[in-house]
Design goal:
Layout lengths: L3 E5 L5 H13 L3 E3 L11 H20 L3 E4 L13 H12 L4 E3 L9 H6 L3 E2 L4 H14 L1
Parallel strand pairs: 1-2, 1-3, 3-4, 4-5
Helix pairs in contact: 2-3
């Protein structure tokens, strides 16, 4: 089966998401990618409004997905970093009973326990395992 998968990560990693996107598309999946915006000419108030729209648009991607995949690379001296927006995206998927997949182990951060409570699957790049878990999840529905 082929699935709809939303990719999530810190915006610092968007260039690396393109590689993951290509792999999953080659496996015939539909991939939703975070929306990107030109931030260069925005004031703080405008940035807040734009960011709000980008969050809602990405939440819409999640609502239409069979799963989300979190690319959690090291950042800010934190191994396997998961930032605030990505944490929100995980919460959205969790609320909708959409499987959450992590590229790397859960980071040790202020909200690690909350991440663990969402029971994400750490799969690295084991796409076959991801597909199997999504299939099992869809059969429960």
């Amino acid at each position: 089966m082929k699935y709809k998968i939303t990719l999530c990560s810190s915006s610092a990693f968007f260039d690396r998401l393109a590689q993951i996107q290509d792999i999953l598309i080659a496996r015939s999946h539909t991939i939703y990618f975070p929306h990107v915006w030109d931030w260069a000419n925005k004031t703080e108030d405008e940035i807040a409004k734009v960011q709000h729209d980008l969050i809602k648009r990405h939440f819409s991607n999640i609502e239409n997905s069979d799963a989300i995949y979190i690319a959690n690379f090291d950042k800010k001296g934190i191994k396997n970093y998961i930032g605030g927006n990505t944490f929100l995206e995980m919460g959205k998927a969790f609320d909708l009973d959409i499987p959450i997949f992590l590229m790397s182990e859960i980071p040790e951060m202020q909200y690690s326990e909350e991440i663990r409570a969402m029971k994400p699957f750490v799969i690295g790049s084991d796409w076959g395992k991801m597909e199997q878990i999504i299939e099992q999840s869809n059969n429960k529905s």
